[in-house]
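Weekly structure sync - notes
Attendees: PM, LS, DV (DV joined late)
Agenda: review two folding runs queued last week.

Item 1: First target. Sequence and C-alpha cells pasted below for the record.
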Amino acid sequence: MKYGFDKKIYEAWNSMSPDSGRWYECLGCGQNHADALHHNFGRGGTNKRYRKAFGSILNSVPLNNELCHLPSHSKIKRDEYFLEQVFRIVQKAVRKGEYRMVERDEEFYEIHSETYKSLDCKLENLKL
C-alpha cells in the first residue's frame, strides 16, 4: 500500500486484517484488491497541527486506486461512510489489542468530533 502515511499506519492495517497478513479489502467495493491507503479528509494543508493529525489511522481508507479511488475521488473526500467504517474497524482492533490510539488519532477525532458524534462514534470507544 502507498500514499503518504507513516509506516506504523500501514503495519496497523496489516495487523487488523482477518488473516493477520495484509489488509486486502477495499472499503469502496468490498473486494479483495485494496492497494493503497488514501486520506479521507485530505492531508491537513499547511497547518502543522492538522498535518500531524491528518496522518491518523482514522483518516486512512484502504481502496483500490484505479478502480475505486480515481473514478470517485470527489465523492471519497470527506465521506462520512468511510469515516464511520474506519472508526468501526479501528474500534474492533483496539478492543482486540491490535491497535492503541496515539495522540494524532485523538487530535483527528477532536477536529471532526461533530461529525463523529452525529454518526454515534464516541472517542471513549477507542480507548482501552
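Item 2: Second target, run right after the first with the same settings.
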Amino acid sequence: MATNKLGMSDILKIVAVLVGAGVAWIASHETTVYGLLVIALVWLANLYFQKTGKHVGKQALTIIVYVLSVVLAFVLHPAMWPAFPAWCSAAIVSLNATTVTACSADPSSYANALVLWGGSILSLGTAVFSFATVVYNTILEKVLAQLGPAGTS
C-alpha cells in the first residue's frame, strides 16, 4: 500500500537528481534553491508532526519562511555595502590632504557623511527586503499548498 509521506530517502533522491544532473541549476539556480527550500520546509514540518503529534503553527511557519527569505535575498543578491565614513584628526588630514578623500576632521562634514552612509544602507536594505518579500510569497504559497489545511494550525 502506498503512503503519501515524504521520507528522508525521498529527499536525498530528489537532491541527488537535481544536483547530479545540474540542468536545473544551470537553467535557474534561484528556482532550484526555492524548490529545495520548499522540500526541506515541508519535510521538517512533517517530521515535527511525527515527533510531537502537533502541527506547526501557521504563524511560526510564516516567520520561519520570511527569515529564510531574507537570508536567501542576501545570499542570492549580495549587495556592495558602503564603507563606514572615517573620522580623521586635523594633523592626518593636513599631512595627507592629497591622498585622504574619505576622511573628515570637520564635525559638520562628518555628520553629513554619516547621514549619507545611513541613506545608502536604507536604500540597499529596501532592495534586499523587497526581493525577500517576493521570495517569501513564492515559498510560503508552495509550502502551505504541500502541507494542506490540516498541516498547519
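Discussion on item 2: The first helix runs from residue 8 to 21.
Action: LS to circulate a short write-up before next sync.
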